[in-house]
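Let us work through a complete example step by step.
Step 1: write down the sequence.
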Amino acid sequence: MTSHIAITAAHWTYLAGVVAIVLTMILRTNVVVPSIVATFFVALAWTHSPIGALGSIFNASFIAAKELFNIFLVIALITSLLNALKTLGSDVRMVKPFRTVMTNGHTAFFILVAITYVISLFFWPTPAVPLVSAVLLPAAIVAGLPPLAGALAIAIAGQGMALSSDYVIGVAPGISAKAAGAAASAAMVADRALVLSLITGGVALALAYFSIRKTIQPGNEALLVRWQQQAGDTESARLEAEGTFDKAEIARATGYEIPADQLEPTKKPTTITEFNRQRWSKLFAILVPISFAIVIAVMVLPKLGITGVADLKGGDAAALVGGMGAALMIFATFAAEGFRKSFDVCADHVTDGFVFAFKAMGAVLPIAGFFFMGGGGETAAGILNIPVAQAPSLLFDCIQAAQAWIPHNHLFVGFGVLIVGMITGIDGSGFAGLPLTGSLSGALGPTVGLNVNTLAAIGQMGAVWTGGGTLIAWSSLIAVAGFARVPVLDTVRALAIPVLTGLVVSTICAVLFWG
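Step 2: predict the structure and record it as tokens.
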């Protein structure tokens, strides 16, 4: 340790807390309790007050909730829109036309990729997996695509590409940037994560396609019959309990079920009410994609140098996405329920959205609170209940003190953060490790001269691609394998080389071009 940095008992306690949390993740045990315990002991070591340390446990989650509430709100509003669309059946109508263009197994593979990616980008993979699996996967199998190939396409496009960038909803880049501190921008992390996710996904998809292309058969209805007669993967039930951030359970908790009549050819309406519902269903199946395409254009065009479009700053992009979701939800509910009843139903949709948001992200708050405490500034001061000028930068101090032992090779540091992100994803969580990778990026970046936004995006790739549902059998990959009726361990084995290769290529590109 260098002499100009004073390393105190609080610093060592904080490092011990980080190690304990990482080891807990490796052991696939829930990290909420270790985060709370570590917060208490770090606060105790710094303030020497047991009462203050107990208060810091509350303050940590409270500060994290304040910093991240915009993320919870966007999730809630987008989920409420999805629930309104399900009532109209517009969600199924949006994807059903693509069944007709699945002329063979090769086109079916890439159509599954494209539709899963788009839906997951706007609604997360939670609804995308059952929707695509129920509507498009049977058609893909009839066209000659093997079920395992369908699972690979859905996992790479949804749990991998879409979730790792999380470009529209902005949960992942928001957490990464907040943890990284003032040197990082959520918009910049999101932009770089989007490019890295496309590079990783492009490499993974190419390798996955070439590995399964010879197993694609000529289209035949008998293929669907054989697939429907297959039993589920009995190993999934055991693996489902292994993860600590059970996204498979979260997916079931949304109650996302597709009525059988929506999968059949559309019948002529027999009443005025049915006629109106089908008319509104068709309208919103067109209106929602167009509306979000406009949102994407507003977000992207200024970055391409096109003038005349407002360049969204800070949380403006998330606000636009959430506002559009809320407006569409209200209109869709009015169409489905009528003017009077819609007032109550809209409130129910918003409530259900918040329930899902906290089920999906609530466990992140104590974890984020612990890492925010180590970042210094106003967040650390609020958690420790001390003046900002006295707030410690525990993680940053430790990195600065150890900089003599840290190789200043950008590739080494980039892959180091990637590996840390992958380790945090071992428990089956894509997001629980983001506070750590973000904090580490904020501390390491200035020390080694590597862009903090780039490092945060690399760590985000490692955490989400690993735990989000492509490399870990006890993640939400269980849901993908279950819908495809293939063994989840076979799916992991088939994904391992393509995804790992993609992550290596994207990390090298990030360091070379954005270092």
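Step 3: interpret the result. The radius of gyration is 23 Å.
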